[in-house]
Model the fold of this input.
Amino acid sequence: SQTIHQWPATLVQPVGSPLSLECTVEGTSNPNLYWYRQAAGRGLQLLFYSVGIGQISSEVPQNLSASRPQDRQFILSSKKLLLSDSGFYLCAWSVTSGSSDTQYFGPGTRLTVL
Amino acid sequence: AQSVTQLDSQVPVFEEAPVELRCNYSSSVSVYLFWYVQYPNQGLQLLLKYLSGSTLVKGINGFEAEFNKSQTSFHLRKPSVHISDTAEYFCAVTPGGSYIPTFGRGTSLIVHP
Done:
C-alpha cells in the first residue's frame, strides 16, 4: 500500500531563517507531487506541483521554492522566512488514472514564523 | 478556468440530525468532483468522488453526494451525524484530463451532543 510521510510535524522558526520541509511517498512510482499551504481559516493554496524528477511548476510567486531530487521525494524550501509564511503545509501525491486524479495527503507540517 | 463555491463556512448541527454541505462549481469543461474531510491537525482524506455514471455517489463514514449537472452542484449529505464527524470538509473539482484540482474554501461541520 502507498504511504506518504512529512517531516517535521511542527516547526517554529524566526523571521529570516531558512526552511526545509520534506515529503516522501512509498509504494508507488512516478507520482504527481504537490505542496499546499493552508492558512488559518482559509482553504488550500496550491504552491507547487511536479510531474517528474526535476520538473517543478510554481502556482504562486513567493519566497518559497521546491525541488524533486528523487522520484518520490519532494522538498519545500526558503532562504529567508517571512511572518506570512506561517501556516499548515500539506504534501500530496496522485497518479493519473483514467484521466482523474485522487489526491492523497500527508499528515502536514505546522510552521510558525516568529 | 474552474471555481468551487462552498456556500457555508460553518454548519452547526445536533448529533443524529441529518446534514447537507453545499458545493457549487463552474467550469467550461467537464469535471471530476471530490469531497475530502480534514480532522484537526491532520491531512485531508478522500470521502467520495464522482467520475461518471450514477449521479448518486456513496462514500466512507455513511456520507453520500449527488452530482447535479444542470445546477452544477455536488452537495454532500449524511442522514444522521455523529460527534466524530466534526471536521472541515472540502469540495474539489478537477477538469477532465488535468491533474490540478481546485478546492473550495471548506465548510466546518460542528456536531453538538
Remarks:
- Chain B touches chain A at residues 32, 34, 36, 41-46, 49, 51, 90, 92, 94, 96-97, 99-101, 103-106 (CB under 8 Å).
- The two ends of chain B are 41 Å apart (CA to CA).
- Chain B has a mean pLDDT of 93.
- The first strand of chain B starts at residue 3 and ends at 5.
